Amino acid sequence: MPILHSIVHRIDKPSDEQPAALQLAEAEPADSDAMDSLLTTVNDRYNTKPKAWGHFAETGSVPFAGWLMAYVENESDFVTFSHRAAEGFTALIDDQLSVGGYLLFAHYQQGDVQYLTMALLHQRHGVGISDALEAVAAPQLNLGQLTLAARINLTQWKSDTPSQQYLSFIKDRGGKQLAERFGEWLGCQEGVDATSETRTLLKAFSDYVESEDLAEEQTREKTDALIEYASDQARRGEPITLDELSELVDEQQPKAFYDYIRHQDYGLSPEIPPDKRTLNQFRRFAGRAGGVSISFDSHLLGSGVEYDEERDRLIIKKVPTQLRDQIKRRQE
Questions:
Q1: Closest by alpha carbon to 223, among 284, 288, 304, 286?
Q2: pLDDT per residue over 148-202, tens digit each?
Q3: How far apart are CA 260 and CA 269, in angstroms?
Q4: What InterPro entries does the record tag this protein with (predicted)?
Q5: CA atoms within 13 A on the CB side of 22
Q6: What are the backbone angles phi and psi of residue 173, rounded to the nearest 5°?
Q7: Lowest-pLDDT range, 156-160, 177-181, 207-211, 303-307?
Q8: What are the residue ranges spanned by the domains of the chain?
């Protein structure tokens, strides 16, 4: 993950009553393994957080998008861009947070894609061992407490046909008001609801598998392919692409699942930001005993399928059509 440019500024906020003071770095730091490690950790943590996904409402309609565009178009350098953004960000959080921190900006590349990450990092008190083998105070970054951060896929933003999800920012439920203010300051127009889109995608997949009347083993293989791909995209902080997913679901007919979604009109976007919690709920329960074989998607438990623990029985609310027809013919 080559870092093209990076810089860190400091925001001091002694108390609620005192205004925040910004200490700007005048130049980028030298390349170091420490900065590489820091950015990797920040990105890993960012990928696990709930996020809002979207795009700039209109380039130039908010200052941040204008500052970033000036940098991307080489009208200003990285340090100038970071100074403008840091000053605007400090004014934003002055009346929202009681503590300051370190503001990280990093422009880096992964494969053929370039990103910009912006994150406020808080510091905590720790303990270390000195060269004299004595316990000493050792301040350290609290990377587990990441509440304000954003990432822009610069390559998508600059492309001729940009997606609607090239911009994301952390949207923790505990800091809803601050997250909303941050999104407004970024100029983010949210494109899709990650939870709703992921849930709809999984519903479309369940419908597709049922329509194909696949064997249990084939269904399990396709489910595993979907979950593995979607979970990997979530870990990387990247959206699910329906074209890629369709190829993984059926290598023999790589367009089959994609065409099914389009023909059924589920209203899904070509790119879907994965919601990890929803994905984790989508697993298959399966069991066989006494000549009975049962298999169903775990997200149906509590809705389409209920478990009566006291009587140790399953209640299936919607019997598969093929199974119902077989039973009726048997009873005739």
A1: 284
A2: 999 999 998 988 766 778 899 998 766 778 888 999 999 998 877 778 888 888 8
A3: 14
A4: Nucleoid_associated_NdpA
A5: 20
A6: -65, -30
A7: 303-307
A8: 3-192, 194-280, 284-331
